[in-house]
Each structure stands twice: as C-alpha cells, then as structure tokens.
Amino acid sequence: MVVQWQNSEQVVKEILQCSPARCSSGTWSYDNVKFSIEDDIAQVKLDDARTGNALRHKTVRALLDLCIELHRRPEVKVVVFTASGFYFSSGGAFGADIPEDDINFAPKLKPGASQFDAGVAENLLVAHLLYLLSTLPQYKVAAIRGSILGAGISLVAAMDYVLAPESRTQLSFKEATRGLGACCSWQATIAKLGVRTMRRLCLLAADVNAFQAKELKLVDEIIAGPTSQAFGEADARALAKAQQVASWTTEERHARKCTGPGKAQPLELCGGGSSKRRNR
C-alpha cells in the first residue's frame, strides 16, 4: 500500500539539513507572520493583510522557520493558527501587491539560471513547507476566514482541527483555471481528501462553503453570527481548543490527529470512498 509520509522522519531530517532557519521564536524578526511559544502552546498569526496573507517568498520562509523549530521542539503540544484581515490565505501570490522586501527571501539562484530553474526552486520551498507542516508532531488548530485558494487550502488541510465562520468562508479550487494539472502544494489536500475527491474539486474549479468544507472534513466547527463577531469568536475558540488539547495525554493527542504519519489517505484507493469519520 502506498501512503504519504512514509519514512517521514528521514525526509524531515533531510529537509531540515538543507533548509537552515533564519530565526527562531526567541529571535523572531518577521513582520508578516507572528510566532510565539508560551509553555506548551505555540501561536502563529498570518499578518499580511496587504496581500491577503498570500504565500509570497517572505511568508513561506517565515512558516518554514517556525516549522523547523517546532519539529525540533516536540515538548510543544499544540500550535494555533489564526490570521489578520479578511483572508486566512489567498494562496500563491499571483498578482498580489507584493512588498519590495520580498525579493530578499526568494531562493538564491546561480547566475544565468533560467525561469524554469527559478520556478523549481520556488516550488521546492513550498513543497518543503507543506511537508514539514503536515508532519509536525504537534496537534494543529486553525481559525480560518475569507476566500482561501490553492496552497492556502493546503494550509487548512494540514490542520487537525479547523474552525470557520459560516459567512465569508470559501475554499476555491481554481488550479485548473490557471492551467495547473497538479501542484506541489497538494500534499496536504490529497492526504486529507484522497486523490479522487481532490481531482473532482480541481477539475470542476469548485467553490466550497463552510458547510460543504465540513462535509469534506476540511472544517470541524462552524461559527455562526455576524461576520466581524464570528471572526473574533473563531480566533478565541481556537485558542480555547488548543488549551483543551494541551491537557490531553500524548496518546490522546496522537489518536485525535488527522494529519501526518499514519493519518493520510492511501494513494492506491484514490480516496473519497470511505464514509467513516476520523476521530477528532
């Protein structure tokens, strides 16, 4: 049986060796992603409303750095992900208003490198990020919001428990409309949804609301009420959920995770065929 995350310990080790972190929680210098650790809970806030929290170079690098630290700190039990603005993540930074400093965080290329080489280097960083995020030893909780696209959906799929406001939450699978038949960012969505469901959503360029996302197991809890109120309540309940999870035993947290080693859909089954709910 072929499954994702086989030999994950070795793969993670190799990624950590080739992707040195620029800073840690103690020396955090990014202004577009907030990251802190207190006791056994880490908090991450995507704070780049100017680009809709798009995965530009600086954001990918910041998320990579925090994932590198968390892989090395298994004593941290839970990670909470929230976002500022109206979008959790608008995915790849296509046409976004990219700040000038973003180029400083782009992959370093050899002189004369082609556009293809640049694309490979950029996508490799995203692939490393999604692999490290999906295989984090911590239980991951997220409060999402707004229109989430492409790689942003993979960030959501890499979580173990997701809260979403009932209004202004939409997951848009628009890869086909951009000419993409596959993407390195699909690691987390395929692991959560299976190949068959992922293929259907992408080929149809489907828009999925909060209730449909819950049926797909991409969302666990829907927050009712006016949008502005629901955004704040989702963030607060995400932190409360993290505090609850932190009180569980290590065995309980592992049993209720739905991401990482031993939790992915078998690739041979093409996914989407089982109606059995995962234990959250």
UniProtKB/TrEMBL annotation:
SUPFAM superfamilies: ClpP/crotonase
Region (Disordered): 252-280
Highest taxon of the lineage: Eukaryota
Family statement drawn from the similarity comment of this UniProt entry: Belongs to the enoyl-CoA hydratase/isomerase family.
Protein name: 3-hydroxyisobutyryl-CoA hydrolase
Organism, as annotated: Durusdinium trenchii
Taxonomic lineage from the root: Eukaryota, Sar, Alveolata, Dinophyceae, Suessiales
